[in-house]
Amino acid sequence: MIDTIGSGIKKMFLQQKSRFLPLPEYDLNEHEKVKVTIFGKILDANYTNVLINRSDLDLSMVMALDRIQKNRWLIRI
User: Fold this and answer.
1) 77 inside domain
2) DSSP string, 5-70
3) Among 3, 14, 69, 71, which has the minimal tally of Cβ within 10 Å of its Cβ?
4) Which residues partner with 26 through β-bridges?
5) How many distinct structural domains can be found in the chain?
6) Is 2 inside any structural domain?
């Protein structure tokens, strides 16, 4: 069940991180719809190894590494 307040989004990210899996993806392209993709398998073993060996990484760094493993541009915030 997804939390309607929004705290569930961060929780899903942290759960995927703790399972060493890719982070969820959100598609907001359709009006009044949100599509969520939750990965249940490893996409890139290097990403998984970094998460296993570097449990100290904060969520923003994990999000950047996730974008790299998915061959996406990094966004400067």
Assistant:
1) no
2) TSHHHHHHHHHHHHTT-PPPEEE--STT--EEE---S-S-HHHHHHHHH-TT--HHHHHHHHHHHT
3) 71
4) 36
5) 1
6) no
- Which is higher by pLDDT, 4 or 52? 52
Residue 42 to residue 33: CA distance in whole angstroms: 27
Contact present, 38 and 26 (Cβ < 8 Å): no
* Cβ neighbourhood burial of 41 (10 Å; 0-12, 13-18, 19+): exposed
Range of the domain at 21: 7-69
For residue 10, the one-letter residue type is K
Cα torsion 24, 30, 32, 38 to 10°: value is: -10
Give the tokens for residue 44.
């890139």
pLDDT tens-digit series, residues 34-65: 899 999 999 999 999 999 999 999 999 999 99
